[in-house]
Every structure is written in C-alpha cells, then in structure tokens.
Amino acid sequence: MSRVLIVGAGLTGSLCACLLRRELQSKVQIVVWDKARGSGGRMSTSRSPDPSSHSADLGAQYITATPAYAQSHHSFYSELLSAGVLQPLLGQVEGLKQKDDSKNYTTPLGMCSVVKHFLSESADLFFECHVTGLYRRGASWEVQRKEGDSETFDAVVLTMPVPQILQLQGDVGHFLSVHQKQQLERVVYSSRFALALFFPPDTVFSFSWAARYITDNSCICYIAVDARKRNADAPGFGPSLVIHTSVPFGLEHLERDKEDVQPIILQELHKLLPGLPQPISIKCQKWRYSQVLTSVQDCPGHMTVLDRPLLVCGGDAFSHSNFDGCVESALSVLSALKASL
C-alpha cells in the first residue's frame, strides 16, 4: 500500500484526499499535514473567544458558480447542496456585480465546512505540521517538518502557496526544470487584511444589507454581517462583522504588524458605519497570499516535479483562484496520482 502525503488542508488538499480515497481506497494510505491549527486554508472560519458570538469567515466569502462550471462540476455542487453544506445566497449584497447566469452559494456553518466535508471521509489529518524540506531517498520522499520526526512517503502532493514551495529545503529545487522554476517564480498573489468584529447577543445594526462592496474607500473594499450572509441568523448569538481591505492597502502595509494595521482599518470602518456598536472582541488576519492574480501559464491544473517517486504541485495557482479552480486542480492531481500509483 502506497503512503501519500498531501501538504495543505485547504480546499485543493481536502478535495485531493477525498477523491483519492474514493477512487483508490484499497491502494493508498492518505496523510494530510497542515501547518495551521485547523483546516480550511483561505476558506477558514474563525470563532469568537466569547461563545455567545457568531463565527466569522475571514477568507473566502461565498462561492460563485458560472453556468459552465455548474454543469461540468455538477456532481460537486449537487453533493454539497444535498448535504446542506451549500445554500443559495439570499441576503442583500450591495454593489455585487452579477455576471451572466452565475449563481452564488453560501455556507450556513461557515466556509470551512466545505473543506471539512471533504476531509471527513478521507485521511489521517495532522495539524501544526510545518513542512520545511523534502529529500529523495531512493523510491520515496523523506519529508522534514519544523517540529517532530521526519517521515517517509511514496508520493507527495504540495498544495501550499507557490512561494512556500520555492522556499522548501532539500531536493525540490534540484528536480524543478529551469522552465518550471521560471513558471513558479512568475506566479503573483494579491495581499489583504481581514478583520472580524464579534458583538454581544443584544446587538442591533442600523443597516439591513447582508454584505456590501465599497468602491470609494482606499482602505476597505468589503463588509459583511456573517450570519445574514449565510442565511443563518441564530437566536441568542451576537452578530459578527467581517471587513476586507483593498488589495492596494494590503500591499502597502504588508510588512507591518497586523496589530499596527488594525486601528487604521477600524478608523476607516467607523467613517463608513458611524454609530457602530462596540464589539466584545476583534481578530485581525493578514492574508499574504490572498488570491492568485497571475497563475502558472499553460498548466493542466498541476505540475509534476518528479515521476518516480512522485512529487506533484497543485492548487489554485495552477488553475484559477476560486472554488472551481481548486476542483479543476484536484481532479488534475488525481489523474497524475492514478497514473503513478
């Protein structure tokens, strides 16, 4: 039985693990490592320190399905809808630019529930496993991590952001061709900050929208009342408010500590929403790798670094930066794994 390591418990990694388990269950042992304390990646959902407040999606906000992807990825949408993981987005979103006949979906339990759905049946999952290096050992890979012993695997799938792949120690750089290295170095990500404001149960907002896109502020580009956005107003729980900064603001302040940036964002927020009640807690997230602006060119959804032992890279940088891009990449990685294993 082959041991397969998937590095990254975001959407692409969780889908890879799930699809691999469904298709090659008797042939593989699947292990997923993630350096964070929980799954989700950029589809993470944060809980308030106070259990009386609603959780907040600090990364991806909802899923948009174009007619073409609704058809080609019908099985994935159908599965998530029938499981209650996805629901149509019904709340009022001010400034939303709807394209063609696309449909928007939200997650009653938060965006991380999509990732958890696919991970629930798939793998041995370990958090706080920060991969630092890969070394070829004959027909297998020795994978080193920041803390804990190294382990050996027959195949490795890397789904973390491309700059983190390029930073790995060991043999990865030796096996990347000059062309592959150039392709990876050309990948560009946007950066932004996100705030979650958690409020007590008796809080009432003076506005009725679920989310709002801001076009006339250099700092803030999006605000959402998370429970309204999810169609999930829960009696007895205080609301949470999610704020995303613009990409130019994120880039300008990227190397500053988030504790120094948070007051700037809050100052702008109070200009946009004067009279906003006082939150009981605030969480600030710096997304250094928010969305892929420039993906790997002429790529089938994955990049095979080495055939034997298999080392393959996947994720939205090898397709495009949304739900369907991750599905495409996971399917592409799966085909490479099936051909190798």
TrEMBL record:
Residues 42-55 have a biased composition (Low complexity). Residues 1-16 form the signal peptide. One of its GO terms (cellular component) is extracellular region. Residues 110-332 form the Amine oxidase domain. It holds the Pfam family NAD_binding_8. It comes from the Eukaryota. Residues 38-57 are annotated as: Disordered. GO terms for molecular function: oxidoreductase activity, acting on NAD(P)H. InterPro entries: Amino_oxidase, FAD/NAD-bd_sf, RNLS. Keywords: FAD, Flavoprotein, Signal. This is Renalase, FAD-dependent amine oxidase.
